[in-house]
TrEMBL record:
Its main location: membrane. It comes from the Bacteria. The gene is mtgA. It is found in: Cell inner membrane. It catalyses: [GlcNAc-(1->4)-Mur2Ac(oyl-L-Ala-gamma-D-Glu-L-Lys-D-Ala-D-Ala)](n)-di-trans,octa-cis-undecaprenyl diphosphate + beta-D-GlcNAc-(1->4)-Mur2Ac(oyl-L-Ala-gamma-D-Glu-L-Lys-D-Ala-D-Ala)-di-trans,octa-cis-undecaprenyl diphosphate = [GlcNAc-(1->4)-Mur2Ac(oyl-L-Ala-gamma-D-Glu-L-Lys-D-Ala-D-Ala)](n+1)-di-trans,octa-cis-undecaprenyl diphosphate + di-trans,octa-cis-undecaprenyl diphosphate + H(+). This is Biosynthetic peptidoglycan transglycosylase. NCBIfam families: mono_pep_trsgly. It comes from Fluviibacter phosphoraccumulans. It is a single-pass membrane protein. Pathway: Cell wall biogenesis; peptidoglycan biosynthesis. One of its GO terms (molecular function) is pentosyltransferase activity.
Length: 224
């Protein structure tokens, strides 16, 4: 029985790793998270569709790259998938508040979850997320990680990826995003559906200003 369980576990990990290798060079297409969101939308509107247009790394504004790293993972270029200092700070904040107020997840961890897993928090999901994070960091460049992340991230109700977000909110391409527009999009990442409904709230404006101040202090992967 134990050997069967171990064998099944290893087969699942091989399946994940095979897709990680494929998506190192190929466009992932609809992620697991996108499929979950689409199913939710289609319960209310059967013919609902997601908005997403894949664009290459070089066709996304450097402003958005800096804003996302500043907002989500300031040590993205230095770590190997896990920001242990960030995890410790998140743990202390959660302990102080008595609830989960911060996650400490890196961009790679978020990408691993979005590509393969489900949004609900559990020890099983976090464990699998960690394994997939190691697979991605071992085989992908930082440029590729950020490219896929920017194309697959949720930015509103049915809105996925930088190109769809830029056109939805500002009527421009992802390559044309200004510093302020990029900082605003990065500010929306923790609650994209909320800000899609509410628009530019006072809290969103404050967070946008914070990210603007941080943007020029972070490094981003080169275009080539």
């Amino acid at each position: 029985m134990v050997l069967t369980v171990i064998g099944l576990f290893l087969l699942v990990q091989l399946w994940f790793f095979a897709w990680v290798l494929v998506w190192k060079v190929a466009e992932p297409g609809p992620t697991q998270f996108m499929k979950i969101r689409l199913a939710e939308l289609q319960k209310k509107t059967p013919d609902a569709k997601l908005q997403q247009t894949w664009v290459s790394y070089g066709l996304i504004s450097a402003n958005l790259k800096r804003a996302l790293i500043a907002a989500e993972d300031s040590k993205f270029m230095q770590h190997h998938g896990f920001d242990f200092e960030g995890i410790q700070k998140a743990f202390e904040k959660n302990e102080k508040r008595g609830r989960i107020a911060a996650g400490g997840s890196t961009i790679t961890q978020q990408l691993a979850k979005n590509l393969f897993l489900w949004p609900e928090k559990s020890l099983i999901r976090k464990g699998e997320e960690a394994l997939i994070t190691l697979m991605i960091e071992a085989t992908w460049s930082k440029r590729r990680i950020l490219e896929v992340y920017m194309n697959e991230i949720e930015w509103g109700t049915g809105i996925f990826g930088a190109e769809a977000a830029a056109r939805h909110y500002f009527g421009i391409s992802a390559s044309a995003l200004s510093e302020y527009q990029a900082a605003m999009l990065a500010s929306m990442v923790p609650s994209p559906q909320y800000y899609d409904r509410k628009g530019e709230t006072e809290g969103l404006t404050r967070q946008t200003e914070v990210i603007l101040e941080r943007m020029n202090k972070v490094a981003i992967p080169p275009a080539r």
